[in-house]
Design goal:
The structure is a single chain. This protein has about 525 residues and is an alpha/beta fold. The protein has 4 domains: about 100 residues, Arc Repressor Mutant, subunit A (Orthogonal Bundle); about 230 residues, P-loop containing nucleotide triphosphate hydrolases (Rossmann fold); about 90 residues, no CATH class; about 60 residues. The chain contains 20 helices and 15 strands. The strands form 4 sheets. The protein has a 5-stranded antiparallel beta sheet with strand order 4-3-2-1-8. A 5-stranded parallel beta sheet has the order 10-11-12-9-13, with helices on both faces. Helix 11 packs parallel to helix 12 and helix 13 packs across helix 14. It is globular.
Length: about 525
């Protein structure tokens, strides 16, 4: 089974590289472990797969009972509509294991288009008051380009704009890279191979609040999975095979099928310290200058590190302390308020890295009243242009509007104290209530705003709750389904989950995005079955 292929059996289609199972146009919901078991069985269709093989492949670092494996098999049979006594797909070989019965067919999948990813080519949200932070990130990025690894923590209270700042920074990096590539292609004579510009590779991992032990290395494995599906994927897989086979075994969708069994036996009994060393060496090798004279500048984003599993924090600390050159930048975000407990493991990691000056920290500040005025000015200008209004108003009109906007900004600043998320939400609410719907003849924006802001809640949590309460049931259901699909999602996936028409779902999302309520557009996404939907 090729890594970039979909597997067709009966009316089902399996996409290992996208971690999805389809029944026609519907996504079949399988738990991660059950999905991994199904992939492993299908890769060996027609062969006996022993219980020991499955335990080693799917639960390599833990001891599990027959009941755990049996539960995964039951989940698979339930979703496939299979019967244990008269199996159509999964046959039980008594006391030995299982066998996948169906004949399968592989179909190529264009992996870059196969799952929705953040599209940095589309307009980003308006960003103000972050020039200092962006400049500092670029200074650290230049150090990473020169081979000095950079471990950067972006920290702040909820709503301060950590994710938006990181997204804006990465958008600038992408634009710079595209400009540099264009210059190289147009340059004559050819650029000096002794001073190549590293190509930028990006992996993004999201820490999730887990209850209980949780899954080890979850955000790192997510980021590596993204890299494996990018242009650097083939090179990364070869590097992992050579330097970090124990990690490649944990990425079955990327591991070459013919070599998986050998890799699994080779890595049996791998210790945690060895895993730390392996991946650290692999990333150093991946970012080294290759035979072509070009190297990869690797940026890993680990979001919401306050929810991280202990293994990820241990790895991050280990990588930060290594002295070998690496064109590596790790951007991690966290909320200090989530670390009030003295036993929080991230506290110890931060204390150790700060003591030895092995990390950088960036704390975006609250917005000033002047910066909120700038934001409002840009929003009104954007709204006016989108409605076909004049782009160069008369001087007296422009001055009157500017005075009104400053007054409105003052009211918003008093209510939000400069919290970016709260500020944007209040502006969205005021716009929804018609404050900026048309040019005001008498410059009374601030008077209307003073009336409208009386009903605006005093904190962001209550504000979001009130916003949700005002949604129609259909809109609330749409948002609930979208929240399960992730920060970036395809309307096709949401439509499949809700069993709604794609066009209807796209119109619902577009309506919410147009009102700046919870959603913003992220471009067009094409799915492997040919379905095209908005993201």
């Amino acid at each position: 089974m090729a890594r970039d292929s979909s597997i067709q059996f009966a009316e089902f289609r399996l996409e290992p590289c996208n971690a999805r199972l389809w029944h026609g146009t519907q996504v079949v919901k399988l738990k991660p472990k059950a999905f991994a078991v199904l992939c492993f069985l299908i890769e060996r269709a027609g062969q006996l797969v022993t219980k020991d093989d499955l335990w080693q492949a799917v639960w390599p670092d833990v001891t599990v009972s027959d009941n755990v494996l049996a539960a995964s098999i039951r989940d698979i049979r339930k979703e496939l509509g299979d019967n244990a006594k008269m199996p159509r797909f999964v046959e039980t070989v008594h006391r030995r294991g299982y066998r996948f019965l169906h004949v399968i067919a592989s179909q190529p999948v264009q992996s870059p288009e196969s799952e929705p990813t953040p599209n940095t080519q589309h307009p980003a949200p308006l960003l103000v008051g972050r020039d200092r932070e962006l400049a500092q990130l670029h200074v650290w990025l230049d150090k990473a380009r020169s081979g000095e690894r950079q471990i950067v923590f972006v920290t702040g209270e909820p709503g301060i704009g950590k994710t938006v700042l990181i997204e804006a920074f990465l958008s600038e990096v992408r634009r710079q890279e595209e400009t540099q590539k264009a210059k190289i292609e147009d340059s004559s004579p050819a650029p000096n191979p002794q001073s190549p510009t590293p190509e930028v590779s990006l992996g993004w991992g999201q820490c999730i609040e887990q209850f209980g032990e949780g899954e080890a290395y979850l955000p790192i494995l997510t980021a590596l999975g993204q890299l494996g599906r990018s242009t650097v994927g083939p090179q990364m897989i070869e590097v992992l095979k050579q330097y970090a086979p124990s990690w490649l075994v944990h990425l079955p969708a990327l591991a070459p099928t013919a070599e998986f069994t050998e890799l699994r036996h080779k890595t049996t009994g791998t210790t945690r310290p060895r895993m730390l060393r392996e991946l650290a060496k692999a990333l150093e090798a991946l970012t080294a200058v290759g035979a072509t004279g070009r190297s990869s500048l690797l940026i890993l984003v680990l979001e919401d590190l306050h929810w991280s599993d202990p293994s990820t924090l241990e790895w991050l600390s280990f990588v930060a302390k290594r002295r070998a050159p690496a064109r590596l930048m790790i951007l991690s975000s966290y909320r200090p308020v989530e670390m009030l407990a003295t036993e929080h493991p991230l506290r110890a990691v931060l204390r150790e890295l700060r003591l030895h000056q092995q990390c950088q920290e960036l704390s975006p500040a609250l917005l000033t009243e002047s910066e909120i005025t700038t934001y409002l000015t840009q929003r009104v200008h954007e709204e006016t242009n989108s409605n076909g209004g004049e782009t160069t108003p008369k001087p007296e009109t422009a001055q009157r509007d500017a005075d009104s906007l400053r007054a409105v900004a003052g009211l918003i600043y008093q209510r939000t104290e400069g919290n970016p998320l709260f500020m944007v939400s209040v502006v969205n609410e005021l716009e929804t209530r018609g404050l900026f719907g048309a040019q005001q003849e008498n410059g009374t924006w601030h008077e209307q705003a003073a009336v409208l802001t009386r009903d605006v809640p005093n904190n962001i949590r209550q504000f979001v709750t009130d916003q949700c309460d005002r949604l129609a049931p259909a809109e609330r259901g749409l948002l609930e389904a979208a929240s399960l699909a992730g920060m970036t999602f395809s309307t096709a996936a949401v439509a499949a989950a809700l069993e709604r028409d794609i066009i209807e779902t796209e119109e619902g999302c577009a309506h919410l995005a147009a009102q700046h309520r919870f959603l913003r557009p992220a471009g067009i996404v094409k799915w492997p079955d040919g379905t095209v939907g908005a993201g």
